[in-house]
Design brief:
The chain is mostly helical. It folds into 2 domains: 14-192 and 305-334, HUPs (Rossmann fold, 3-Layer(aba) Sandwich), CATH 3.40.50; 212-300, Tyrosyl-Transfer RNA Synthetase. The chain has helices at residues 27-43, 52-55, 62-78, 96-105, 110-114, 117-125, 132-147, 160-176, 222-230, 247-260, 264-270, 276-302, 305-334, and strands spanning 14-19, 45-50, 87-90, 152-154, 185-187. The strands form 2 sheets. Strands 1-2-3 form a 3-stranded parallel β-sheet. Strand 1 (14-19), helix 1 and strand 2 (45-50) form a beta-alpha-beta unit. Helix 4 (96-105) crosses helix 7 and helix 7 packs across helix 8. The model has no long low-confidence stretch (mean pLDDT 94). Bound molecules: tryptophan (TRP). Tryptophan is lined by residues 16-18, 20, 51, 54, 141, 144-145, 153, 159.
Length: 339
């Protein structure tokens, strides 16, 4: 007879991340975050969601929005996430997110939300639609994280403040009642590239850049990628080396390094005596090869809507089980009469 293993395997830490379906992700989103998610999924207990509720804080065209939600789910599969291994789901399919967000709204101060820099920026860029959802966005994000008792959340610089607030809200609730939520820690990955705009390399690459030459979408065709990289802004020195004041070349070097694994020193050595023209072609080819398999798998998943629907349904069920457990706990502590 098998003796039961009395030494329980150490529980893997849970990591949670979400991506908004508000457009096609860029090379920056891919190299800076998505590319690492597969590694995270292998190392941790992963939950990955399409944050569709967050996306409606700015106006979305319904037909495009529906398409983008499916595209982002297909992209999660295309980057290699396995729906058996990780929980892959669509945020709005798990009603507990909206429910907990409402409750947490009542434990969050107007003043705290007013200080969020992203809210301040977005109320300027969308001055005609400064809605309450945009204001309360970080509370919904806190609900996303806290529902799953996530230990770790991979965050870029622009989401640090939001994670900070999620921690504050969790601590406040835990202190007011009793320990309920795990306090999430930021997960700082190994150098996920910070990819800058190809046209204004002092700004982050963004899909909302009005100039499409500034960013590469993960689904741009090879010839488009080649053209955009060839027209990237550089400098007049003509020497491929990483240095202050060479934002354009530094950016291309970091993109190249991320796609090939070469260090800056190796790149400088390989391109010694060569001009920016040669270097740009090499960068473009590396990017094209990096994105090719993702694109191919993406096309396959988008061609099988029934499978996507299945993945979403299964993910929502697994996610709901965890999320509802937390929501029930919270409701009980607040004093709701449970149904
Ligand atoms: N706000 C995040 C972004 O725009 C997306 C997001 C929503 C998220 N909920 C989250 C990220 C929970 C991490 C954890 O990038």
């Amino acid at each position: 007879m098998d003796t039961p293993n009395t030494q329980p395997e150490a529980r893997k830490k849970r990591i949670l991340s979400c991506i908004q379906p508000s457009g096609i992700p860029t090379l920056g989103n891919y190299l800076g975050a998505l590319k690492n998610w597969k590694t995270l999924a292998d190392e941790f207990d992963g939950a990955f969601a399409v944050a569709d509720l967050h996306a409606i804080t700015v106006r979305q065209d319904p037909a495009k929005f529906r398409q983008q939600i499916q595209q982002v789910l297909a992209l999660l599969l295309a980057i290699g996430l396995d729906p058996e291994q990780s929980i892959l789901f669509i945020q709005s399919h798990v009603p507990a997110h909206s429910q907990l967000a409402w409750i947490l709204n009542c434990y969050t101060q107007f003043g705290e939300m007013s200080r969020m820099t992203q809210f301040k920026d977005k109320s300027q860029s969308h001055a005609d639609n400064v809605n309450v959802g945009l204001f309360a966005y970080p509370v919904l994000m806190a609900a996303d994280i806290l529902l799953y008792q996530a230990d770790l959340v991979p965050v870029g610089a622009d989401q640090k403040q939001h994670l900070e607030i999620a921690r504050d809200i969790a601590n406040r609730f835990n202190t007011l009642y009793s320990p309920t939520f795990t306090i999430p820690e930021p997960y700082i990955g190994k150098q996920g590239a910070r990819v800058m705009s190809l046209q204004s390399p002092d700004k982050k690459m963004s899909k909302s850049d009005p100039n499409p030459k500034g960013y590469i979408s993960v689904f741009d065709a090879p010839e488009v990628i080649m053209k955009k990289i060839k027209s990237a802004v550089t400098d007049s020195e003509g020497c491929v080396r990483y240095a202050d004041g060479k934002d354009g070349i530094n950016n291309l070097m970091s993109i190249y390094s991320c796609c090939t694994g070469l260090s800056d020193a190796q790149i400088e050595h390989d391109f010694q005596g060569k001009g920016y023209g040669d270097f740009k072609v090499a960068v473009a080819e590396a990017v094209i090869e990096e994105l090719r398999p993702v694109r191919e798998k993406f096309d396959r998943y988008m061609g099988d809507k029934a499978y996507l629907k299945d993945v979403a349904a299964q993910g929502a069920e697994r996610a709901s089980r965890i999320a509802n457990r937390t929501l029930q706990k919270v409701m009980k502590k607040v004093g709701f009469v449970l149904p």
